């Protein structure tokens, strides 16, 4: 199998706020929309054969300008969504994330563990690579999803500080070959 996946962490979104849009509907800020437009040349230059995204608005908005420029649809895939953490909008979210990274098998009620996220992410991305052999797929996604995918594919240097410091936007290139998955991107 030969395929290339370009994981795009979404551009700058509105911050979560009580009474604001829920996590699924938080849009990009004006700065984020401009960042998404600036990605078009780089992403189009990779000649993607397909564009997929988490169904969350901020991820879709990040890859939409590239999809428009190339005349490709954005395929929304529920399995590419962000971590179902059940943490919610709280000022001390970083503490909760750090605790989860320290014990990736810990699961909050009604949520998934970080380990489960790694399994979901690697399964979904491997299926996309198999479906798009000899092609390149641009994927709008999220920081924790990308971080846990990298862990799932064997990158041992990814931890909570790495995930927390991941830029918005950020591009990670996964090359699926007969030898395995080669990964490049910021911080690796």
TrEMBL record:
Tell me the GO molecular function terms. Answer: phosphatase activity
UniProt cross-references to SUPFAM superfamilies, sorted A to Z: Phosphoglycerate mutase-like
Q: Which Pfam families match?
A: His_Phos_1
Q: By its UniProt entry, which InterPro entries does this protein fall under?
A: His_Pase_superF_clade-1 (IPR013078), His_PPase_superfam (IPR029033), PGM_Phosphatase (IPR050275)
Q: Which residues form a coiled coil?
A: none
Domain of life where this protein originates: Bacteria
What PANTHER family does this protein's entry cite? BROAD-SPECIFICITY PHOSPHATASE YOR283W-RELATED (PTHR48100)
What is this protein called in UniProt?
2,3-bisphosphoglycerate-dependent phosphoglycerate mutase
Q: What is the lineage of its organism?
A: Bacteria, Bacillati, Actinomycetota, Actinomycetes, Pseudonocardiales
């Amino acid at each position: 199998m030969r395929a290339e996946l370009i994981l795009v962490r979404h551009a700058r979104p509105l911050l979560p706020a009580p009474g604001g849009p829920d996590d699924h509907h938080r849009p990009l800020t004006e700065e984020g929309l401009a960042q998404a437009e600036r990605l078009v040349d780089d992403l189009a230059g990779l000649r993607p054969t397909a564009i997929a995204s988490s169904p969350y608005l901020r991820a879709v908005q990040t890859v939409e300008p590239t999809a428009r420029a190339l005349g490709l649809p954005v395929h929304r895939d529920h399995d590419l969504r962000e971590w179902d953490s059940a943490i919610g909008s709280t000022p001390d979210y970083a503490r909760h994330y750090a605790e989860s990274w320290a014990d990736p098998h810990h699961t909050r009620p009604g949520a998934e563990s970080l380990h489960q996220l790694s399994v979901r992410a690697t399964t979904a991305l491997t299926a996309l690579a198999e479906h798009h052999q000899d092609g390149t797929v641009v994927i709008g996604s999220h920081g924790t999803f990308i971080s846990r995918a990298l862990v799932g594919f064997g990158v041992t240097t990814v931890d909570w500080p790495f995930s927390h410091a991941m830029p918005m936007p950020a591009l990670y290139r996964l090359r699926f070959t007969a030898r395995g998955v080669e990964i490049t991107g910021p911080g690796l």
